[in-house]
Amino acid sequence: MTSKLPHVGTTIFTVMSKLAAECGAINLSQGFPDFPIDEKLSDLVNAAMRNGHNQYAPMPGLPSLREGIASKVDRLYGYRYEPDTEVTVTSGGTQAIFTAIGAAVQPGDEVIIVDPAYDCYSPTVELFGGRPVHVRLGSDMKFDADAVKAAITPRTRMLMINTPHNPAGTILRDADMRRIADMLRDTDIILLSDEVYEHLVFDGEPHASAINYPDLRERAFVIFSFGKVFHTTGWKMGYALAPKELMTEFRKVHQFNVFSVNTPIQHALATYMMEPANYEAVPSFYQAKRDRFATGMARSRFKLLPCEGSYFQTADYSAISSETDLDFAQRVTREFGVAAIPLSPFYKEPPTDQRLLRFCFAKQDATLDAAIEKLCRI
Question: Does 314 fall in a domain?
Fold first, then answer.
């Protein structure tokens, strides 16, 4: 058969995690925690199973969970989405992104993607017949509003943004969001705002959600992840928010994609998220891990770029090697026992002079310390 994605192979996350396992290396590549979740949350899931909540949930999600999401969003951002028509529970953030693109993008539509970008963006646009239009973050890994504005054409259907940013670790701020609002005003361009790391913003900075900006909110799918907040990436639980008109189209795709998502976990999350303390401590928890990793790596030959959010630290290795990032990442895994992610797979056309790796610091302190010791030997 003819491939619909002829240029797509196995994801770099799978490649590097497999290599890490084969070499017995510390895996700082794929973005998942290696520490246990809150026992209260797992107890809630077990209780939901024992209480018989094991069959299909309603297609858009349990009403109690959608109500809890709407209340949390209102508490954090001062705007309340209608739970019945504007909130949908999804099988993780990636499924929500896939579904939003599928609902909005027609064959021939252009979708602006800001590189380096999470690797599901571009292939999903292509699957639905759209044309990815790639622009880059600036050399400082910050949002380049002028480059994005220059990429807008009459065929532009969607702009995709991500804050905090994976893999760069930078954030969008109020001025960035206002520039985006200005450039989209008087257009029919849809915004897809990937905010799965909303609670991983550091140094006292606020999370500049699209929800905060009425001009953006009225045209946006906003995507979130329970896995990133509650350290449960393997549960694949997330949600999407959008105005009723957009969410109606989203659900048309959602119902034929997954229909509904894990029922007992939805019951557990509906109860667990009623207590704000269960997510309010997340920024300080991960900031401490960022700082531990950065302090240890100060003894290394790597140059760490500023990490403003997410649980990823980008590091420049140009003082160590002129190898390509993939070659260097694989050699570090094999010879020094630490796996990282090269940044080039996050680009359509990676900068030729860029020498960057991404390390995940969502790990136990002992894991981080062991990795730091190895990396400082390079």
Answer: yes
The pLDDT, as a whole number, for residue 64 is: 98
The type of residue at 167 is: P
Residues 288 and 270 in one domain: no
Tell me the C-alpha distance between 33 and 151, whole Å: 36
Taking CA atoms, 66 is separated from 89, 156, 262, in Å, by: 7, 31, 14
pLDDT 10s digits, 336-362: 999 999 999 999 999 989 999 999 999
Say yes or no: 252 and 212 in one domain: yes
- Which one, of 367, 288, 294, 375, lies nearest residue 33 by Cα? 367
**Residue 3 within any structural domain of the chain:** no
Strand partners for 222:
193, 241
CA angle 270, 275, 278 (to 5 degrees): 95
Q: Are residues 92 and 21 in the same domain?
A: no
pLDDT at 8: 85
Provide the number of structural domains found in the chain.
Answer: 2
Residue type, 100: A
150-175: average pLDDT = 98
Does the predicted model carry a pTM greater than 0.70?
yes
Alpha carbons 374 and 378: distance in angstroms, whole number = 7
Residue 346 covered by a domain: yes
Q: How confident is the model at residue 253 (pLDDT cuts 50, 70, 90)?
A: very high
In angstroms, rounded to a whole number, what is the distance separating the alpha carbons of residues 368 and 378? Answer: 16
Which of 2-11, 109-118, 153-162 has the lowest average pLDDT?
Answer: 2-11
Instruction: Kindly give the pairing relationship between strand 312-316 and strand 303-304.
Output: antiparallel
Residue 195 to residue 118: CA distance in whole angstroms? 12
Whether residues 225 and 341 fall in one domain: no
pLDDT for 139: 86
Provide the domain limits for residue 184. Answer: 55-278
| Run of H or E including 316 | strand 312-316
Domain C-terminal end among 220, 244, 278: 278
Residues 173-212 pLDDT 10s: 999 999 999 999 999 999 999 999 999 999 999 999 999 9
Residue 13 has φ and ψ, to the nearest 5°, of -65, -45
Q: Is residue 35 part of a domain?
A: no
Q: The CATH number of the domain where 328 resides is what?
A: 3.90.1150.10
